[in-house]
Amino acid sequence: MTHSATTESRRAQPEGGGGRRRSQRPRRRWGRIVLLSFLAVLLAAGGTGYWLYSDLNGNIDGVDLDKALGDDRPEKLPTSGQNLLILGSDSRAGANAELGTGKVSGARSDTALVVHIPEGRRQAVAVSIPRDTLVTRPECAKEDGSALPEAERVMFNSVYSTAGPACVVKTVEKMSGVRMDHYMEIDFAGFKGLVDAIGGVTVTIDEPIKDTSSGLDLSAGTHKLDGTDSLAFVRTRHGVGDGSDLGRIGLQQQFIIALLSEVKRQDLFGSPTKTYKIADTLTSALTTDAELASLTSLADFARSMNGVDPASMDTIMLPVAYDKIDPNRVVAAHPQVDQLWEAIRSDTEIPESAKKSPATGG
Fold first, then answer.
1. Of 151, 141, 137, which is closest to residue 69 (Cα–Cα)?
2. Which end of the chain is more exposed for a tag (fewer CB within 10 A), N or C?
């Protein structure tokens, strides 16, 4: 659910496209998250609720992964664990064009997270895939139905613009051997709108960040960020580490935990108006797999994660090393990535050795 700057950096040249604090609050049930809360309001609202439900339900775009990918996919987990691919797209079209994020045609999967929810739904794991990772893109069907041949050493974030979301899912499945059960995508405007709708997100940073490219200027300490500053926070890279995409991943992961914790903390039942605003913002910005493309399905999925506490989520960057041919790019680091994907496939604890990346971004 995050995005990047569009100017060149020493280690991450765009093709257009941390730390966390454990909450001391008691765990609250995921029934209070946006969509599940809104369903309860709808049920109480009678006929008007049905109209609102239909209106919001129609906001969600769906991608039929089974139809697009066929049977050439990893097997489903033998356990009840779930894997979710979350993309932040950097389209500048429509409302996104007004956000000061640069003028670049098309859209890329600017941020990618593989979220693994183990059997028992207690502690989720989020794996960030650096957008500048060189991967082998498998043969895919483009969105217009034409065939796209396999290609080696392509930037991960270019797969989205070249062949669409289904090909991104297929690429992740091929590189990991892990089947993605679900898919979610949100764009710049949707991300900003969601943060504003919940009243902002609070983050704490140890060092000041000043990035003229993203417009972010924060002193060390605690800050409550609105939607505009939040977008700059997750997109900044010149103000952290070595200025690469890798340096900002820690900030992105920190923000995701803070955002989820804030959504979970709020008593949305107490404000139907606010609940509707959040639900309208979120559903308008969401693209999901066809199985999740309804309020009911999203609510059922949320209900299945009642026991997951965002503050306990394990955030990992895919282990990568700087490419020997092009130091502005990274490649998967072995054997760390093999250990990581194997742990997710088998729904077992991820070893500490699989969390260490040779390339850190400073």
1. 141
2. C
Q: What is the rounded CA–CA span in Å between residue 168 and residue 111? A: 12
Looking at this protein, which amino acid is placed at residue 273? T
Residue 60 phi, psi dihedral angles, 5° rounding: -85, 125
| Rg of the chain (C-alpha set) | 19
How far is residue 335's CA from residue 317's CA, in Å, rounded to a whole number?
15
DSSP annotation of 205: E
Mind listing the pLDDT tens digit for each residue in 8-43? Answer: 333 434 334 344 444 444 444 433 444 444 444 344
Residue-wise pLDDT for 47-63, tens only, equals 445 556 677 778 888 98
pLDDT at 308: 77
Amino acid residing at 50:
Y
**Terminal-to-terminal C-alpha distance of the chain:** 23
What tokens appear for 319 in the block? 């282990």
Asked if 315 contacts 89 with a C-beta cutoff of 8 angstroms, the reply is: no
Q: For residue 133, give the DSSP letter.
A: B
Tell me the C-alpha distance between 272 and 158, whole Å: 40
- pLDDT at 49 (0 to 100): 52
The beta strand positions in the chain, using DSSP E, are 61-63, 82-89, 109-117, 125-128, 134-137, 140-141, 147-148, 151-155, 182-187, 201-205, 209-211, 216-218, 221-225, 287-289, 314-317, 320-322, 330-332
Contact 288, 63 (CB under 8 A): yes
- Confidence at residue 158, expressed as pLDDT on a 0 to 100 scale: 92
